[in-house]
Amino acid sequence: MDLLIDVPVLVAAKQKMPMIKVLVEDPRAGEVRVKMFASGVCHSCLHAYDGSHATPMPMILGDEGSGIVESVGSGVTTLVPGDHVIISWLLNCGTCPPCRDGKPAHCWAPSPFGALLDNTQRFKNAETGEPVLHYGPATYAPYTVVPESSAIKIRKDMPLDKAALIGCSVTTGFGSVTNAAGARPGESVAIVGCGGVGLNAVQGARVAGANPIIAIDTSDAALQMAKKFGATHLINASRDDVVAETLKICPRGVNHSIAAVGSTKAMQNGVEILGSGGTMVILGAPPNGAVLEIDPIFILGKERGIRGSKYGSSNPHVEFPMLIELYLAGKLDLDSLVTGNYRIDQSNEAFEILAQGGAGRGLITFDQ
């Protein structure tokens, strides 16, 4: 039956989200309903909140979370109520050739913004009956409905609050280095932007054996966190010439740069510090209409490359369990990522702190 929840709903950009009573439908065929345990506070959602990315409304935000399966729809074979899961924000079909090949980011199924794969919603305003849209998996809802393929079963001894972070920022940042860039031991990696995603790119570089690992940001606090996570060199972009300082460390340029912030200036720096055969991986989403100007001769002459990476170019069904094993073995630091803890009715405060440039990751936890 439908469940009644109180949830913050985005009804207008640049305005606080009111808590609204919403009904959550039962899962349909091939879907599961998850009782959320925790959800990370993500920059992608901030872009919707502050209006820098055009977003339909009313909408429930949240693209990073963990929880426990509450009920399953018909045809679900891999999950049962009580399973612990991390939610993948890739609402992929799980059956097309790219999905079967372990590349869900390339899923052929239409992924309508604001809805599930069948282009319908599972939320509705309890008073008006009006549909309420999904921001991906809508993990700010105490209960949410997602496709079976987007709920990844995990071992029950993994703390669910830390597991939530793997749902987006950890996988995206870590995989940008290990999957998209393919960094090898001894190769140089520069991470431009050390927010929640960038810090995990630093961790990915450390685990990959990269050296040096250069962290670049405008915040000294973020840079100090990057050092804790494995950066060997720090550059403050608000004070220093990023290109000149990077070339002092790596005179021939870096093997890999990761643009982990949606700033075209950061991306420009990421290209200009590349050495011969180097590749910049773009992770950060810039505002609508942003344009990156690149000299093609600079790219052509030394076989430099630029590529995008969606979700760390990962297969969540493989990546999530692997990252959990690294965490439980003490090789991946999730504990230090969390710098703010919030209740769901404090989500506006969480966004405001994130907008001010707070280092690390905010985490919303739900009543259990």
From TrEMBL:
GO terms for cellular component: cytosol. Keywords: Metal-binding, NAD, Zinc. Residues 12-364 form the Enoyl reductase (ER) domain. The keyword NAD applies. GO terms for biological process: formaldehyde catabolic process. InterPro entries: ADH-like_C, ADH-like_N, ER, GroES-like_sf, NAD(P)-bd_dom_sf. The keyword Protein biosynthesis does not apply. This is Unannotated protein. Its cofactor is Zn(2+). One of its GO terms (molecular function) is S-(hydroxymethyl)glutathione dehydrogenase [NAD(P)+] activity.
